[in-house]
Write a structure and sequence with these properties.
CATH architecture: Roll
Helix content: 10-25%
CATH topology: 3-methyladenine DNA Glycosylase, Chain A
Distance between the termini: 28 Å
Radius of gyration: 15 Å
Largest sheet: 8 strands, antiparallel
Oligomer: single chain
Length: 195
């Protein structure tokens, strides 16, 4: 198996990393020995302090977002609405507070374990297991215990994948950040178009 993406991959602008994560493989290994894998199909970039949609807007630092202020290559996991976990790959340097939200993936391994966590039966419809940030985290068993985890270790790792041609990439505004005003419309969401 190839090596996970090096931390240097993440230590670049969030927008670049978000696009290049498409097609990569996210692998989750649980302490119980389960192995689950999916191909990343949708991401969103958050640009740190100057981005009003970012948890680091205006340089905000808190207990909740402390992992966001690490150097690129670590997980930033948070709970939204007190219900759903969201997984981000921290990007740039520790001064940036930037990250890429992992929005969706196509399961390729460990489907039974993912379906059990999601309370679904196989075969599941496309997108049902990991077709949104909360679904993805639930399917993979990603929670706050993985906040700050390196993205090149056994528990949680992202590996190179097949290249995604530019004509298959759809770019648009981010989802669910209307409070950010004009920043909500920035075209920082990337997804692989269905064939």
């Amino acid at each position: 198996m190839p090596r996970p993406l090096p931390r240097s991959f993440y230590r670049r602008p969030a927008e670049t990393v978000a696009r290049e994560l498409l097609g990569c493989r996210l692998v989750r290994r649980t302490p119980e020995g389960e192995r689950m894998e999916l191909v990343l199909t949708e991401t969103e970039a958050y640009l740190g302090a100057p981005d009003r949609a970012s948890h680091a807007r205006g340089g905000l630092r808190s207990r909740r977002n402390r992992s966001l202020w690490l150097d690129g290559g670590f997980a930033y996991v948070y709970l939204i609405y007190g219900l759903h976990h969201c997984l981000n790959a921290v990007t740039g340097s520790a001064e940036d507070g930037s990250a890429v939200l992992i929005r969706a993936g196509e399961p390729t391994g460990g489907l039974g374990a993912m379906a059990r966590r999601r309370g679904r039966r196989l075969p599941a419809r496309r997108g049902e297991l990991a077709g949104g940030p909360g679904k993805l985290c639930q399917a993979l068993g990603v929670d706050l215990a993985l906040d700050g985890a390196p993205l090149d270790r056994r528990a949680l790792a992202i590996y190179p994948g097949g290249p995604v041609p530019e004509e298959r990439v759809v770019r648009g505004p981010r989802v669910g950040v209307d409070y950010a005003g004009e920043h909500a419309g920035w075209p920082l969401r990337f997804r692989i178009a269905e064939r």
